[in-house]
Queue: 2 jobs
Job 1
Amino acid sequence: MKNIAIFGSGNGSNFEAICEANKNGIIKTNIKLLVCDKKKAFIIERAKKYGIETLVLSLKDFASKADYEQAIVNRLKELEIDYIFLAGYMKICSNVLLSNYKGKIINIHPALLPSFKGAHGILDAYNYGVKVFGVTIHYVDEGIDSGKIIAQDIINYEDGDSIEIVEEKIHKLEHVLYVNTIKKILEE
Ligand code: GRF
């Protein structure tokens, strides 16, 4: 069975969807570690609920981004992590992580890439007035939301949908698409 780590910075609904799918046997993996860069993030509470080890590190406590990432890599290596799944991790992965886990870091983005990259994908798409929203799962490279696409799925805008409704629909879609994609990756 493959060992995975999940990286997140915030709410952790995707993290929870993955944990739940693993608990229910939809995916079969060892979720060995949550890496979180925000001490007060709710995702940490979710990890406690599932008894998952959490590594909480603040970039500001390190001399450089490379040192910060090296501390993460050290624990990943100890735990023999095979794949890293980013789920709302609000930092760009740099060379230390990328070179140690080449082709093994995957991210979920709440828009149809290559449109609406960056931290506000849903809001940017909504303000643009798109009629088709979507979710993208992609490999992580040195750019922002620029790696090779693995999977995408869509939802249609329905007249009158508020931003909150669109967000809710997108997050629901994310949870399903991420679990299904992780399942496929782990079975490769
Ligand atoms: C998701 O929309 C994900 O696509 C993006 O950040 C958000 C994280 O949400 N990268 P959550 O923390 O999983 O609830």
Job 2
Amino acid sequence: MSNILAIVGRPNVGKSTLFNRLIERRDAIVDAVSGVTRDRNYGKSHWNGIEFSVIDTGGYVMGSEDIFEEEICRQVALAIDEASVVLFLVDVVEGVTEMDIEVATLLRKSKKKVVLAVNKVDTGKRLHEAAEFYQLGLGDYFPISSINGSGTGELLDDVVTAFIKTEGEEEQPDLPRFSVVGRPNVGKSSLINALLGEERHIVTPIAGTTRDSIYTEYNKFGLRFMLVDTAGLRKKGKVYEDLEFYSVMRSVRAIENTDVCILMIDATLGFEAQDMNIFRLAERNNKGIVLCVNKWDLVEGKDANLHKTLTEGIKKQLAPFNDVPIIFISATNKQRIHKTLETAFEVYKNRSKRIPTHTLNEVLLPIIEELPPPVYKDKKVRIKYITQLPTAYPQFAFFCNLPQYVKEPYMRFIENRLRENFDFTGVPIKIYFRPK
Ligand code: GDP
Ligand code: GDP
């Protein structure tokens, strides 16, 4: 169902270097100091036409040396639970360590696909030394160099055999799929219980054969949809609740299997860095988003202006993609719960919206005529026509003579005009300039 690759291993073996290579962000800063929390721990990658998410677990290891061991083992256990492929990275320079042996023992017991990669094999001599990792009992390994990229192609060839082919397209299910995402304790289970809780007769839990595919059908008040991964949410693993890594793993999986994410935050805490991480994750996956500010009952001094001030504050943080509905709710008081669902439906409709080519051209070409892309290297960019691509989420192709000369600010301008003229609230849109 979801294509998730988790990279596990000791600090300093090169996890984040490999991560950056896989998600093609080679310019990212790699910190040689072990244990530094990095804010960019997940991204999208593709290989042989297969898209997948990559999670660098290393970014979540915090604190002093002595808590590393316990934390790494917990992460490995989580990665086994939540990812579809676990990539165990070791370091040929350091050789086999106690920690490696411990991790290998955990991995040998798992039923998930495990891939062993020996990193820092930059030279022929090191290729020879890598053989000592056979003693981990994980079978064949891939000698790689995350720094120069050698061996990573063969590694990926093997990794993607466990994934589902997507070709950039997602399957189109019959019913809209919604999920409630957010960090621990914001009130996700409370909302789901408010929706599904007491009235069990209206819901049909459709549990797949694996833990990967748990949907619950909701059919009430004329609204019919699937809630993603609700069972997992309701009986959450208390042990892991505190871990940011845990909530990210859960979110990644829920987001991948969904059309619209109801991203919940806690009104008493505001919009924080971890909320932003989950928001960007949904955005990067081109999912619809409804931002839901929960525990509104706890907020004091509510007046007409507070809504407005808070909404504006959050939108400022979300920029540039801030055309997102924001709803203030109370899950425990069941306040505006129905409104949340209705909004999720609107976003769903926006995400599947198709604008006919003639309408697009009628509306946008005059705007472009009035304000064309800036002249670049003495050349004028001429946009001939525009069409929406037949994909699961909104993508637009602008055909023109010199697509390479159209820069980011102009794309932003075009996106804003698109949003002004056609309602795409809550939906990330992609714009491409193509040669004609
Ligand atoms: P992490 O803690 O596992 O995420 O490790 P990092 O990606 O931060 O890398 C730790 C150190 O190993 C950095 O100084 C990297 O430059 C270095 N490193 C990573 N990959 C390679 C490699 O393939 N060859 C060599 N020689 N050094 C590497
Ligand atoms: P989850 O970890 O996101 O699933 O959060 P829970 O649903 O378990 O809620 C965490 C805590 O917040 C619980 O003690 C809930 O009773 C409380 N809570 C959830 N929603 C609300 C709300 O709308 N108002 C108030 N006052 N408390 C809430």
